[in-house]
Structure prediction request, 210 residues.
Amino acid sequence: MHIAIAGNIGSGKTTLTSLLAKHYKWQAHYEDADDNPYLNDFYTDMQRWSFNLQVYFLNNRFSQIQEFRNSGKNVIQDRTIYEDAYIFAPNLHAMGLMTSRDFESYFSLFKLMESFIQPPDLLIYLRASIPRLVDQISSRGREYEESIRLDYLKRLNERYEAWISTYEEGKLLVVDVDNTNFIANDEDLGTVISKIDAEIHGLFQTSAKK
Prediction:
């Protein structure tokens, strides 16, 4: 079983990954942000480091997927490989922060990798408004995120909504973060878990019939 959590910067992906991994006693796989050798440079000079950063994320997430699919364990993943390819890289290209040549090379590499992987059994999308994202980004105090612009977050949000509206790779659960505080409210977390239970019980039954 592979559950993946998608959402904009500051939407609560890492926190929900931790909470669900603890609840279900499943293995958690996190986005490699703190150890990413390009992230600080990227936020300082996006145009120079955008391609390097996106290739690093692509390789890292592809390796993760291969690892836990081969392990046979139940896994909860913080962010998906699809977000890099359909949201972050195209956004950088549209903003003039990644050349067309680099974007085409990147997307060609993604399509090759995509042919070797399976989509998550359940995708959880954390939908959040810009004010909510800003509050949560500010509260965690990561120095490299201090320079993130509001228009950058807005562009990402628009791309997330467009992607989710056409997502057909597997089951999808949308969580409204503005009205669901699973971080501080146990009742809200319980509601999210109940919705996930309803989805994964069906997935387990489907797997058993195969």
Summary: The beta strands are 2-7, 27-29, 75-78, 122-127, 171-176. DSSP finds eight helices and five strands in the chain. Helices lie at 13-24, 39-44, 46-71, 81-94, 100-114, 130-140, 150-165, 186-209.
